[in-house]
Every structure is written in C-alpha cells, then in structure tokens.
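About this split. The held-out portion is used to measure sequence recovery: a designer receives only the structure tokens and must propose an amino acid at every position. Recovery is the fraction of positions where the proposal matches the reference. Here is one held-out target exactly as it appears in the evaluation file.
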C-alpha cells in the first residue's frame, strides 16, 4: 500500500511527502456508552488509512483518494467545503484545527487504506486521525495534545459529516498501542492500557457485509433517547444513573426511551465486570458478558439486524466463548472470542451457513491489536 501511495504522489505532485498512518479499531465491550459518559474498551487494529502529504505553499488542498479513484481540490474557508464525503473528513479536520487557533496551510496528498468501509471498524475515524495527526506535525510542531486531536476528529463528524458520535473511535485511533486494549472512562477521560494476550483464544470479526452507514442510520436518534432520559432524571449523562433511578421515572418517559436507557445502564456495569474478569484471566465471564451485550443491543437498543443476529446464533451454537455486534450497529461485524481449537470449525460453519441463508459469504478478519496514529517517514 505504501509504495502505491508514494508512486501515485510522485506521478501527480512534486517533492518528497511525509507518510502518516492511523488505524481502525475494535471494541471488546462498552457499546453506545461513550456519549453517555460511560466506559469503553477499544484497541487499534492492523488495518489502516495511510497518507502521503506535503505542504504546497498555497491555500489549497489537492487530494487523491487512491482506492476510490477520485480527486478533489478545495480551499480552507467554510465556503470552499467540498461535496465528496471522503473530502469532507479532510476539510473538516483542517477547519476544526483552525477553529481552535491552530495553523493549516495548503497541501498535496494521496491516501489509501485497507479498512473495509461500512464494516463498523471506524474507517472514518482512522481517516480523521491520520490527517489530524499529520497536520499537527506539519503545521503546528505537534503542539496540539492527543486528546484534542481525538476531539478534532469527533467534531469533524458532528459538524461536517452529520454523525453525532462519541469519542471512542477517534480516541482508539490516536492512542492505540500494539498488544493493548484501553479502558477509557468517557466522563473523566482517564484511561488505562490493558495488555491483551488471551492465551488459548483468538479474536475474530465476521463481517455480515450489510453496509453500516451511521449518517443515515438512527444512531443520532439513539443518542437523543439517552439525552431525554438523562434530562428526566436531572443528570448530565446516563453514567450517573442506575436501574432504581430509571424505574422511578419510568412513567415520565416513553417505553422506547426506557429500554434504550436500560441497555446503557447495564452496559456500563458490563465493561467493569469484563475488566475484572480479564485481570483474573477469566475469559468465560468475558464471553458471557459479550453475549449479554448482544442481547441488549439487539432487543433493547435495537441496533442489530437479522444477519447479525444470525451470526450471533451460529457462534452460540458452535460453542464460541463470546460474540456480539461491534460498533454502532445497523450492519457491519460481530466480534467473537473463540477458543483456538474451535476457530476453524466456527469460521467454516459461519461462512457456509451464512452464505446458504443470505446468498453471499461474510468476510472473516483476524484481529491484531496494533499501533494507532503515527508518522512512518
Ligand atoms: C460508533 C461511534 C462511537 C460509538 C459507537 C458505539 O462507532 O462513532 O462513538 O458510539 O458507535 O459504541
């Protein structure tokens, strides 16, 4: 990938670019908790967005999206906003840096990647993180701190891409380290690295290839439900709620908002239970919690789909230790914690049965927990 990007840069532009990359992410547990001030447990993975970038001394950005075979040129003022979805991420990151008093000049860039799009692996956060990391290095002497880099990516989603997301994906993409998951408290923003080497187990993603596009999905509506319940409780976020408090306002909120909040409150405790279990090496409990999360995401939070529930059922039938929808939902992948000796059988069964049912094969991705945003050259 790196050579393709460098060659295309040399064909299209002049001079020697710097090379940056940032990663997609998995999340072991803690879904839809980030915008509720709860806990998440993600890690960066070995699937990346990579970009060759060189300041060009003008006030224009000339960008090539290698994999899409598309190009865009745009300025840095609000009225110069590009229309192509992928270019809006780059433009948004540049604008958000400027809004915070940072510097951005024109640049030439070619980027590409191997993160499957719409699979729930946060290709968009990886794109934002790659560019925000690069522009901090190239124009700001790395003076913007890493949390602010993650927030710039998140604000790009809010203000330029129509997704009212939490901080998890950008955080994972910026802070990720090889072999380590991170438990982030999204209220205090304190976090801890957790070495993740589940001996005897593998993490595998099964991609339903049902396209997940948060912008047109009811993701923002889920967030609004949570905010309404928090308002009814008189608290800032559902992080500060428990089941007794929820029961007390049950009559004042809609039945739908009630079940949404019920999921979020349960999920907060599940992350902590998984952290405890991990430190004891108790993968059976980790797996059981993953199944509970799937049930909650499917029934209460209603972000699953038939294909993902089907994959979850297959995992359960094959004796897979843990399995659940990963990320925002509405399509994409399940994440599965599988005993080594079950791996081949599970993958074979999942692929065969899924194809028989839906007429196309799911994709299988083995997960290697890897580094996040970095400069390669
Ligand atoms: C998407 C969002 C995240 C998070 C997850 C659900 O990936 O970008 O902020 O809310 O969904 O956990």
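Reference sequence for scoring:
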């Amino acid at each position: 990938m790196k050579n393709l990007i460098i060659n295309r840069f040399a064909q299209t532009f002049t001079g020697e670019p710097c090379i940056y990359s940032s990663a997609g992410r998995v999340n072991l547990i803690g879904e839809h908790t980030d915008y509720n001030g709860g806990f998440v447990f993600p890690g960066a993975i070995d699937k990346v967005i990579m970009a060759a970038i060189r300041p060009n001394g003008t006030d224009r950005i000339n960008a090539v999206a290698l994999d899409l075979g598309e190009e865009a040129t745009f300025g840095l003022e609000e009225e110069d906003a590009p229309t192509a979805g992928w270019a809006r991420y780059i433009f948004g990151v540049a604008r958000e840096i400027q809004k915070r008093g940072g510097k951005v000049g024109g640049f030439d860039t070619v980027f590409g990647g191997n993160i499957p799009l719409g699979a729930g692996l946060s290709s968009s956060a990886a794109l934002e993180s790659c560019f925000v990391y690069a522009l901090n290095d190239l124009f700001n002497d790395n003076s913007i701190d890493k949390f602010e880099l993650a927030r710039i990516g998140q604000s790009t989603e809010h203000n330029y891409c129509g997704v009212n997301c939490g901080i998890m994906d950008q955080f994972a993409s910026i802070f990720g380290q090889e072999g380590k998951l991170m438990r982030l408290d999204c209220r205090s923003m304190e976090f801890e690295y957790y070495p993740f080497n589940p001996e005897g187990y593998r993490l595998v993603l099964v991609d339903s290839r049902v396209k997940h596009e948060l912008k047109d999905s009811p993701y923002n509506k889920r967030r609004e439900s949570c905010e309404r319940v928090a308002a009814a409780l008189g608290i800032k976020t559902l992080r500060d709620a428990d089941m007794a408090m929820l029961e007390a306002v049950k009559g004042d909120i809609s039945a739908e908002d009630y079940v949404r909040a019920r999921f979020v409150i349960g999920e907060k405790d599940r992350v902590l239970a998984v952290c405890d279990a991990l430190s004891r090496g108790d993968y059976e409990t980790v797996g059981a919690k993953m199944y509970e999360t799937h049930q909650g995401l499917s029934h209460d939070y209603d972000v699953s789909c038939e294909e993902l529930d089907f994959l979850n059922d297959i995992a359960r039938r094959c004796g897979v230790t843990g399995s659940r929808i990963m990320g925002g939902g509405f399509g994409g992948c399940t994440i599965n914690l599988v005993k080594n000796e079950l791996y081949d059988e599970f993958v074979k069964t999942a692929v065969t049965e899924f194809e028989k049912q839906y007429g196309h094969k799911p994709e299988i991705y083995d997960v290697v927990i890897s580094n996040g945003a970095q400069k390669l050259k």
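Annotator remark: The mean pLDDT is 96.
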